[in-house]
TrEMBL record:
Organism: Danionella cerebrum
Ranges of biased composition (kind: Basic and acidic residues): 211-229
Bilayer disposition of the protein: Single-pass type I membrane protein
Keyword Signal in record: yes
Residue intervals passing through the bilayer: 461-485
Name of the protein this chain belongs to: Junctional adhesion molecule A
GO biological process: cell adhesion; establishment of endothelial intestinal barrier; intestinal absorption; regulation of membrane permeability
InterPro entries in the cross-refs: F11R, Ig-like_dom, Ig-like_dom_sf, Ig-like_fold, Ig_sub, Ig_sub2, Ig_V-set
Secretion signal span: 1-18
């Protein structure tokens, strides 16, 4: 009896210090506008009703609650459902690409795990920028950009319908060409352009999602190469089409000879001689692109006007762009690209939109067991740049590293000031106190969470032993009562089953057998 009681006791004690494990699916990949399940399972050590929370962190570093306080947040309530601790998206978009945190707590334990989700989007038709008129020996940059593809597209360039290798030095047929191709950002650069580089160019964007996309033939230009752009009159040999004339509206002053000649041979692709005026003024072509922290790029200003997404939000002025209002989603890199007169230049502006922190949401258990692993969390959903965190114990700020301060040498916590976690690997009675956290990012006033008392209690071994003994005595008393009641006849007796009788009928042989030994039935019977 006592050995059995000790065995039950050992099970109860070890169960209090068991591993708290959270298991998730992933990494996951889904197509845009498709549904997907994010699965999260956990061990039974968290108890019958653990607390489950879901957070989302995009590539910009912004955190958002998805499931909190046993309900879906307002932003996601029409898009997801919760099942068995997991999330089910009805449809995902490219904005859902990022990290999803499943956090489970209960029974004095805490665990979390991360699912990385990538939403794939086929590439769109890329926008290319190819100069029509360039000078021999100048630096020329051809650009190609796909704003939709996820993951970001890689690019390939074609010259006269022939694909160009990424490294021309590896193929003998391209050894006389000295371009540089970047397949990741779509740039094709000629450090010193020559007559051999004349041709019809177009680019192709692909990301293994859907069909590769090419820019329109109208955007594929056949560059005219000039020997120089000096003030002296020069003769130019080349090809010209009506499309190229329309794109050469940036040339303001031309002689009447050039105008008449270009109109008369439009579309004939014939060789001709053009005399330009002594002073040619070239209008610069300016473009702006935006790259957010996820790596997605968007055209802001193109073809001398803001794109549809930014119309009404920004205006163009000499030297740049002016936003009427910015939001945290505008944080990222802005590329200004200027081309003209056969040259190209670009530069980048890094913009950080500042947002003060909001009141952080903290999770602090009110009762924990001595020796268990405990994690306190703190999270600010609004701050930009992301907030850093500080924890307070009984209104005293806790240092990030307690080993550096004599007054905190007996505390063995681990603090992460970037994600707001305060972890006690093995909590003790000394950790009993009132805790709150503070979020700050240098913008506005630091914000504090609510104060919660965390009480550390010893494991009640005496209560567990007493409970086991009482349980065993109750079982023994029940068995004894059943035995005594059965002995005294208080329990109903089970009726004995009577053995079935078998009837065998035997007829007299003398009555049933004739003289010729033939059997005949004399009477009928039923057994």
């Amino acid at each position: 009896m006592w050995s059995f009681a000790f065995f039950c006791l050992s099970l109860s004690v070890t169960g209090m210090d068991a591993a708290f494990t959270v298991t998730v699916s992933g990494p996951l990949k889904a197509k845009e506008n498709e549904g997907i399940d994010l699965k999260c399972s956990y061990t039974a050590d968290f108890g019958a009703t653990p607390r489950i929370e879901w957070k989302f962190r995009d590539s910009k570093g912004f955190h958002v609650f998805i499931y909190f306080d046993s309900k879906i947040t307002a932003e996601y309530e029409q898009r997801i459902t919760v099942y068995n601790g997991g999330l089910r998206f009805r449809k995902v978009t490219r904005a859902d690409t990022g990290d999803y945190y499943c956090e489970v707590s209960g029974n004095g334990g805490y665990g979390e795990n991360t699912i990385k989700l990538e939403v794939s989007v086929p590439p769109s038709k890329p926008v290319s920028k190819i100069p029509s008129l360039i000078a021999v020996g100048s630096n020329s940059l051809l650009t190609c950009f796909d704003s939709e593809g996820s993951p970001p597209s890689i690019y390939k360039w074609y010259k006269d319908n022939t694909p160009l290798p990424e490294d021309p030095t590896t193929l003998p047929s391209f050894k006389n060409i000295t371009y540089k191709m970047n397949v990741f950002n779509g740039n094709l650069e000629f450090p010193s352009v020559s007559k051999l580089d004349s041709g019809s160019y177009f680019c192709e964007a692909s990301n293994d999602e859907g069909e590769p996309q090419r820019d329109d033939g109208e955007d594929s230009h056949n560059p005219d190469l000039k020997d120089s752009l000096s003030t002296d009159a020069q003769n130019v040999m080349g090809k010209i089409s009506n499309t190229q004339i329309m794109e050469k509206q940036y040339i303001n002053m031309l002689t009447a000879v050039f105008l008449c000649l270009s109109l008369s041979v439009s579309g004939l692709h014939a060789a001709f001689t053009v005399t330009v005026s002594p002073a040619v003024k070239v209008k610069e072509n300016e473009e702006w692109k935006f790259k957010d922290l996820k790596g997605s790029q968007t055209l802001i200003y193109y073809d001398n006007k803001p794109t549809a997404q930014y119309t009404g939000r920004l205006t163009r002025y000499d030297g740049g762009l002016r936003f009427s209002k910015v939001t945290r989603a505008d944080t990222g890199d802005y590329d200004c690209e200027v081309s003209g007169n056969g040259g190209y230049g670009e530069n980048t502006i890094k913009l950080t939109v500042l947002v003060p922190p909001s009141k952080p949401v903290s999770r602090i258990p009110q009762s924990v067991t001595t020796g268990s692993n405990v994690r306190l969390t703190c999270f600010d959903v609004d701050g930009s740049p992301p907030s850093t965190y500080r924890w307070y114990k009984d209104n005293t700020p806790l240092p990030e590293d307690p080993t550096k301060f004599p007054s905190f040498k007996n505390l063995t916590y681990k603090m992460n000031v970037f994600n707001g976690n305060l972890e006690f690997p093995s909590v003790s009675k000394l950790d009993t106190a009132k805790y709150f956290c503070e979020a700050s990012n240098g913008e506005g006033t630091p914000q504090r969470s609510d104060t919660v008392l965390m009480e550390v209690r010893d494991l009640n071994v005496g209560g567990i032993v007493a409970g086991v003994i009482v349980g065993l005595l109750a079982v023994a008393l029940l068995l004894f009562g059943l035995w005594y009641a059965n002995k005294k006849g208080y329990l109903p007796k089970v009726p004995e089953k009577k053995q079935k009788q078998q009837a065998v009928y035997t007829q007299s042989r003398s009555d049933d057998v004739d003289a010729d030994e033939e059997f005949r039935q004399k009477s009928s019977f039923v057994v």
